[in-house]
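Database export, one record per block. Field names are fixed; values are copied verbatim from the stored entry.
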Amino acid sequence: MGEIVLAAKITHVPSIWLSLQEGKHHGIRRQAEEALAEVSRRAQERQVDTFVIADTHWLNSSGFHLNAKVRHEGRYASHELPHFIQGLTYSYPGDPELAALIGEEILTGGQKSLVHDIPELGLEYGTLVPMHIMNSQEPKVRVLPIGCNLYSTIEENLRVGEAIARAARRSGRRVAFLASGSLSHQFPTNALTSKYLNSISAEFNAQMDHAVLEMWCDGRIGEFLEMLPDYSVRCSGEGAMADTGMLFGILGRSSYHGHGEQLCEYFPSTGTGQVVVDFSLDPIA
């Protein structure tokens, strides 16, 4: 029987890639780099064999999609920010077996799932940036991305998270789930973007993000889930905050009695709010 052995909210901002390169931005996201490396260390310690990644840059408009390729390989440049991310080569094993099980469980939960083995279907930077830091050692851990539906509700994503947990139990895998997305996600207007590389777009969003982090670290999960739909709307949730919904579905919704451990300081990036948080759990068996 498999289990979820790690569940974390992570950042994937393109400025992390800049931080890794030589040049004027080298090291600007060092805390985020170190936090992702710590999540990787914990995954190794817990003998994780598959990263399931809810990628808020793989955006879908219909259904819930899984990339079930046997191997993910390619060379990536961001279509959104090609001046930030280019020349990112990658090669990771996939997990078609677990993808099929998750697809089945999403269908069992009454929603539409689509499981793909398409040669041309590459990975997005919500997966690639963290995996570059977290999954570089050989043998590499399997990678299974799940897209985020822009028009999904929080309730749907909670149910998808529950489906992922059920599939993990059936799989025999030791699974790490990574909710790859921001907290608040309001970008500044185009003319101001370059001035906001290290700034938040609105003080309201910063205050809301800090309130959310306090709830997570205090274990006030029921309280957070009550406000999550409004939080997503009012703070411009990235990818409908689908990744966050899935995360708390996996954890057990308001019956979860653990807490978050913040692994880096909250930081703004191009107007958005970013953090890395690992959630305590008894193995979800």
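Remark 1: Residues 5 and 283 are 6 Å apart (CA to CA).
Remark 2: The mean pLDDT is 96.
End of record.
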